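Quick one, probably user error.
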């Protein structure tokens, strides 16, 4: 089984989150940018199913290249009930091959491609969801987690 790489990232409050914090099942989802329409939809949909996820002993972390301050703003603005991790240098995103060339509106740029990892307490990757659609992410994720 493939392992999720060793990591140590700050959350929005400056607390360090690492593999040691992976208890039970953890969802680590990578998204392009705070306060953009798709990322806001995705985060709010996850917020809506958080109680159900908690009942399944699932923890959620969002990861992007945004700063702690931007994460704090995003959480406050949307009343999010999970932590966002800072990967400003994209080291973890690059290691997982989720930071790549993207095309949007006819322009090419490097950035995070929406990708979700479901990881167990031993850092084993139970599922990798590529090309995640913001609008159906929460439903797709819940369906998978209910099966696990």
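Nope, works fine. Designed sequence:
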């Amino acid at each position: 089984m493939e392992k999720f790489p060793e990591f140590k990232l700050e959350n929005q409050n400056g607390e360090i989150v690492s593999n040691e914090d992976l208890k039970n099942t953890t969802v680590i989802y990578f998204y392009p940018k705070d306060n953009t329409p798709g990322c806001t939809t995705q985060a709010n949909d996850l917020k809506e199913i958080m109680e159900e996820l908690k009942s399944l002993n699932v923890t959620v972390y969002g990861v992007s290249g945004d700063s702690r301050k931007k994460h704090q703003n995003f959480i406050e603005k949307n009343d999010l009930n999970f932590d966002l991790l800072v990967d400003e240098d994209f080291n973890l995103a690059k290691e997982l091959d989720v930071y790549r060339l993207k095309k949007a509106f006819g322009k090419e740029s490097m950035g995070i491609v929406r990708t979700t990892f479901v990881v167990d307490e031993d850092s084993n990757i139970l599922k990798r969801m590529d090309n995640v659609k913001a609008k159906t992410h929460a439903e797709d994720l819940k369906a998978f987690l209910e099966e696990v």
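Residues 37-48 form the longest helix (12 residues).
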